[in-house]
Predict the 3D structure of the following.
Amino acid sequence: MEILFKPIGIVHSPFQKKEEIETEKFAHPQGFDSIEGELEIFREYEAGLKDTEGFSHLIVIFAFHESEGYRLHTKPFLDDTLRGLFSTRSPHRPNPIGLTVVKVIKRKGNILHVQGIDMIEGTPILDIKPYTPRDQKISIKYGWLEDKMKKK
Amino acid sequence: MEILFKPIGIVHSPFQKKEEIETEKFAHPQGFDSIEGELEIFREYEAGLKDTEGFSHLIVIFAFHESEGYRLHTKPFLDDTLRGLFSTRSPHRPNPIGLTVVKVIKRKGNILHVQGIDMIEGTPILDIKPYTPRDQKISIKYGWLEDKMKKK
């Protein structure tokens, strides 16, 4: 069984290349909060953006389009121990799907101006979803990351 | 440009059919919290589950495999006004990708026992990611949903 997806838009980012993304930023829950960018949704899907500006945060689902291959045990950005891939946010995954919650600044037609960009220029967007109270998990444990990531 | 994904596992759910999922449950942030199920990750990916049990919550990315077609303006479960598709969590999307944050109860080999299941039996899993403080947005606005969804 295979499932075919096609981009509904692309990310415009201040990061032109993967190497420009300082991975230490991932150690801070707000590390990317000030990074602004645009989500350009192709015109054919623009009508679907109605009402998104009422939400403070959106979930962007995208393709790690420059990622190739994966290892089931991997050294995450923030650690030097091998970790199970599905306990990391590594871009190298069986299905190279990425997920970032961004803050909406404003919408202008088919362009969403947002904060919290941690993707590179040209990243293909697969979906946009509203971030709702169901996505808010207040009391969480976060395993190996607890020692590596500063508390909010 | 098209991107090909293949399932890494399947969801085992008490819901056999879409019609069994009471959509009013979506009006409560904890509406599905008590619904238990299993994420069966195929054996070839099992090693990637190492360390996931250290996290209280995981993000499950899956395919809405029974969803066909979409409309850019749609009536969400919880509303009777037409809303922009990307401001809803409708399963009918240009790329029928779903996302649910589940609570980990325990892992047994390639099976994750979880709470918070809102998918149907047999749903193809595309990815599992750890839920981290970067995904916690504490102060949020949620547009048209604010009148429809009870506060936490």
The radius of gyration of chain B is 16 Å. Chain B has no helices and nine strands.
